[in-house]
């Protein structure tokens, strides 16, 4: 797997509707955009943002996920749709409180 490197230009964390829309338009691969990964029903219901605190890291991870898993799966099996693939720390904290792990580590 390629070495993970941070881009020199830092993407600011989205803090307005406009910057959130712009962030969602970041293309991760030929078939996927960042907005494909950001929907969270838990966040929507509780009014919690599901935007990353570290956009550069989220973009880098999303690009790697698309390149090494999603695009090859799509090439093999046809179009796939991602409902959600990212959880902000606030959404994850709420999720873990609602569905704690059992003794085997399963949620």
Summarize the structure.
With 107 residues, the chain is mainly α.
Write out key terms for the chains shown:
4 helices, mainly alpha, 107 residues, single chain
What does this structure look like?
- The mean pLDDT is 85.
- By secondary structure, the protein is mainly alpha-helical.
- It is 44% helix and 0% strand.
- The protein has helices at 17-24, 41-46, 55-77, 89-98.
- The chain has one domain.
- The radius of gyration is 15 Å and the shape is globular.
> Helix tally?
4
How much helix, percentage-wise, in residues?
A: 40-55%
Strand content: under 5%
Q: Show unreliable segments.
A: none
Total discrete domains: 1
Order of helices and strands: HHHH
Cα distance spanning the termini: 28 Å
Shape: globular
Global mean pLDDT = 85
Largest sheet: none
- Radius of gyration equals 15 Å
Class inferred from helices and paired strands: mainly alpha
Count of strand segments? 0
Lay out the secondary structure.
Layout: H1 17-24, H2 41-46, H3 55-77, H4 89-98
């Amino acid at each position: 797997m390629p070495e993970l490197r941070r881009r020199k230009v830092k993407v600011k964390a989205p803090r307005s509707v406009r910057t959130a829309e712009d962030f969602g338009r970041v293309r991760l691969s030929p078939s996927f955009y960042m907005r494909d990964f950001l929907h969270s029903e838990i966040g929507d219901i509780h009014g919690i943002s599901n935007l990353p605190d570290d956009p550069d890291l989220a973009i880098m991870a999303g690009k790697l996920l698309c390149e090494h898993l999603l695009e090859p799966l799509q090439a093999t099996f046809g179009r796939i749709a991602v409902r959600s693939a990212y959880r902000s720390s606030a959404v994850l904290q709420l999720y873990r409180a609602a569905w704690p792990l059992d003794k085997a580590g399963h949620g």
